[in-house]
Design goal:
The chain is mainly alpha-helical. Helix content is 61%, strand content 5%. It has a 3-stranded antiparallel sheet, with no helix packed on it. A hairpin with a 5-residue loop joins strand 1 and strand 2. The longest helix has 32 residues. It starts with a helix and ends in a 7-residue tail after the last helix. The relative contact order is 0.07.
Amino acid sequence: MTRLRHNAAAVSQTISLNNRTMHSSKTRQIMVTRVGLNIPASILYDEWENAGKRLSAVADSSAWCLGDWLIFGQHRYTDRYRRAIESVGLDYQTLRNYAWVARSFDLSRRRDNLSFQHHAEVAALPPHEQDYWLDQAATNGWSRNQLRQQVRGSRDSGKPGRTDEALPQLSVAEEQVSRWRAAARSRGCSLESWIVKQLDAAALEVLGRPLSA
């Protein structure tokens, strides 16, 4: 929920619903309306670029939030959620697409440094492959299109991005899992990625090999 509150706060800071402005300076303000932006001719390039970044963050956060909203309604109000969608004027198919991606990544696995569309590109993959490709995209600074090309190239060549071997299931206490999740969040990675890194580091230490091996 911390990450969701952070996104909501970013949206609140970006668009003021009271004065409906996006501030760039005291004399240059981008006016936000329901049908678009009123951009002053005097706006500077850096201010215009920053406004685009803020709008992108709003759109990205909105996709996640709308997906989560629909998922909640589907489970909590199974007989009424479609009526709510119609009453607020949202497109059901678009919401279903958002919900599909949101359902593929719980909050702890969503990457703040990657867009919703990055996640959508790998949503159909198994979780361990999702994490692998998102890690690669974050490390290499790939755009959504670059990520798509890398995933397709790996699939077309018949060589997966990584060969994985399933580990046996483990029975652990709930408090341990909660502690591990907290540690993973503090490192900005998924629980699965954090566990793999910790196990690998421990194995290398036991074997007496450097961590960079």
